[in-house]
Known about the structure:
By secondary structure, this protein is of the alpha+beta class. The chain is built from ten helices and 14 strands. It folds into two domains: 96-193, Phosphorylase Kinase, domain 1 (2-Layer Sandwich); 200-405, Transferase(Phosphotransferase), domain 1 (Orthogonal Bundle). A seven-stranded mixed beta sheet has the order 4-5-9-10-8-7-6, with helices on both faces. A three-stranded antiparallel beta sheet has the order 2-1-3, with no helix packed on it. The N and C termini lie far apart (120 Å).
Amino acid sequence: MAVFGGGQCWKKKFPLSNGFRDATNAGTKVLIKIRKDNSTSNLSDAELKKKNHSTVRLILSVLLSSSMFLNLLFLLAAFLLAFRFKYWKPKAPNPYLVMPGMNLRSFTYEELTEATNGFREELGRGAFAKVYKGVLQYEDRKPVAVKRLYNMEREGDMEFNAEVSAIGRTNHRNLVQLLGFCNEGEHRLLVYEFMSNGSLASFLFGGSRPYWYQRIQIALETARGLFYLHEECSTQIIHCDIKPQNILLDDSFSARISDFGLAKLLKTDQTRTTTRIRGTKGYVAPEWFKNMPVTIKVDVYSFGILLLELICCRKSFEVKAKGEDQMILADWAYDCYKDKKLDLLVENDEEAIDDMKRVEKYVMIAIWCIQEDPSLRPTMKKVVQMMEGSIEVSVPPGPSSFISSM
């Protein structure tokens, strides 16, 4: 603001808080500069109120529209989530090759936890693992057996690697098929096809005596499975733990060799290996205790004990046997063979008694298999040929004491 009067001109600053009327200053002129814009200072009270209402309506409209949009997004997300839980099925993991020649599925730990319902139903356990029943949801609820390795120190890692390497390369009707594995952090699991009739141990020692024809069929199928592992695999495999608990039975009671956790792989130019004692008491070959190289003949020995158990329908060692001479099955079987009293081995088994020629042949094969000297034991190929009748079974020599293998 500029003031002119009395021949002078000076400026005044706003606000004019100390202004007053002065009648003596007639003729004084005041010049006020006003900004020309769209400010509300030029609006009437009615117009200002109307503009404020319009602004409020605009803000409320924007907020309401945003709220409705967010609500729609929330409802859409809830619908999609509900639809997914109701109709979505887990997608099968893509199979891939772990190593050349091994077509196995890779499972996540979460998938196997869900498949086993939190590892609820235990089927069995071993030194390094427990086995649980599971169901694969994405394969028409296919039942599987999930072997969960635990307490994984160095030996456990060796077991996992050996089992995946061994079974992943095998394909035979008398072997349990490995379907996949999980190697996630500290979790190591193996997924097998499920054998509905359990183990040979439960079948043989669980109650009523199985039929003779079933027992001899299981013996032959087990021999064929071992023959495959020893001579028909691309890499020769020593199982190292043949026993009734590791022979499983499928829907038709056919024998399937399982549990390659103690398997010892041999290179193609290698026929024997030195390792620590493995296997199960009563089925372990004498060379394990003599610091001798271990060959496929350790499996032949274990099969011989298993064959005697199938013939007699009893365990290899029984404290409550009728007599002290019958406690160790291998010793008793040889005594019965030598004394021509094989009927004692199959007492009250009418089917076996009616087939004594086969009983005698199988006992002779078993005695050959349990020879203390590994070089005297036949190969599994020859065992199969003798059992099938394509070659004759010669008279076996007397084996040495079997007590060292207990």
